[in-house]
């Protein structure tokens, strides 16, 4: 048994050493948990993560699935090990991050989401704790595909549960219980993450869904046919939670932001999923990949040194 470096309700993450030439962590999900009433769906999520990662094996922006095994007692998933999460970088930063650091993270995750789009995979839980960083080589990777789903050829008629994702990063349609989901789900979440990395605190930190809907509309404006023409047709609860607000504007949450990053985030936070910017357009907006990752590596190293972070600490 290796040293445990993270744990959740139904899984643990521990050091695994070198597996097939890669420094790994081991994510273990006991079968006994999967069989319990409280853990309904855990086994399904484990297999979905494995299947999604196998669809994305060629991606340099997705955490590498090194090996997956099952025994009579547990499912064991070996994943490559990186240094820290974006959540840790945000929480422990004592000053605003440089634009070059933010743009590098944005570009890498946009590349990951574009590769997910090509593979017809929707992540459905993009958030800072699911983005891994390495101080060496400017590596940024998307991880934790336990809620991921593959889109069918007839995605418009594919039914999804709206009870997924993490509240602060849920798009408007999911908050309103739409059963139709697409890659636009991840784009909204991405926009929330990029706003958070700029301001070092969440854009919309609601505690329950109603408050989340209020915070979004209080900033971006009321939900109506002007902001999303077909919302009432798609979302079952669209008319139940519409607030009489004017919308103070996204720019107040993002002071002193680079215009390119602002336009990118604003494009992600369109109410209408079909109007949101695509991952490919985000990449076009950001321009070519930078070759010098010194400022990004320095930011990661500073956080790790000052905070004495344990590598790869995150809840699962």
What does this structure look like?
The protein is an alpha+beta fold. It has two domains: 4-81, Phosphorylase Kinase, domain 1; 84-294, Transferase(Phosphotransferase) domain 1 (Transferase(Phosphotransferase), domain 1, Orthogonal Bundle). It is 36% helix and 15% strand. The protein contains eleven helices and ten strands. It has a five-stranded antiparallel β-sheet with strand order 1-2-3-5-4. A three-stranded antiparallel β-sheet has the order 6-8-9. A hairpin with a 2-residue loop joins strand 2 and strand 3. Helix 4 (99-118) packs antiparallel against helix 6, helix 4 (99-118) runs antiparallel to helix 10 (279-286) and helix 6 (184-199) runs antiparallel to helix 9 (259-268). The two termini are 18 Å apart. Mean pLDDT is 87; it is low at 310-316.
């Amino acid at each position: 048994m290796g040293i445990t470096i993270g744990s959740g309700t139904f899984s643990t993450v521990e050091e695994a050493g070198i597996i097939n030439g890669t420094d790994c962590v081991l994510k273990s999900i006991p079968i006994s948990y999967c069989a319990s009433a409280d853990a309904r769906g855990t086994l399904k999520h484990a297999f979905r993560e494995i299947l999604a990662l196998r669809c994305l094996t060629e991606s340099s922006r997705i955490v590498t699935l090194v090996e997956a095994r099952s025994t009579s007692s547990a499912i064991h998933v070996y994943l490559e090990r990186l240094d820290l999460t974006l959540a840790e970088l945000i929480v422990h930063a004592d000053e605003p991050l440089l634009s070059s650091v933010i743009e590098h993270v944005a570009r890498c995750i946009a590349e990951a989401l574009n590769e997910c789009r090509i593979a017809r995979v929707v992540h459905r839980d993009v958030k800072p704790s699911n983005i891994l960083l390495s101080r060496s080589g400017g590596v940024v990777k998307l991880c934790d595909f336990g809620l991921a789903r593959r889109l069918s050829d007839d995605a418009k008629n594919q039914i999804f549960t709206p009870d997924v994702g993490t509240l602060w990063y849920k798009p408007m349609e999911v908050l309103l219980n739409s059963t139709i989901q697409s890659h636009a789900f991840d784009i909204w979440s991405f926009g929330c993450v990029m706003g958070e990395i700029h301001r070092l605190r969440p854009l919309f930190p609601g505690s329950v869904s109603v408050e989340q809907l209020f915070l979004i509309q209080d900033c971006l404006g009321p939900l109506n046919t002007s902001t999303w023409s077909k919302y009432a047709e798609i979302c079952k609860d669209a008319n139940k939670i519409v607030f009489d607000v004017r919308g103070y504007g996204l720019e107040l949450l993002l002071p002193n932001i680079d215009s390119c990053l602002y336009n990118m985030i604003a494009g992600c936070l369109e109410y209408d999923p079909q109007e949101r910017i695509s991952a490919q357009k985000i990449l076009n907006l950001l321009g070519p990949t930078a070759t010098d990752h010194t400022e990004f590596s320095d930011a990661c190293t500073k956080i790790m040194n000052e905070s004495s972070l344990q590598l790869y600490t995150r809840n699962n």
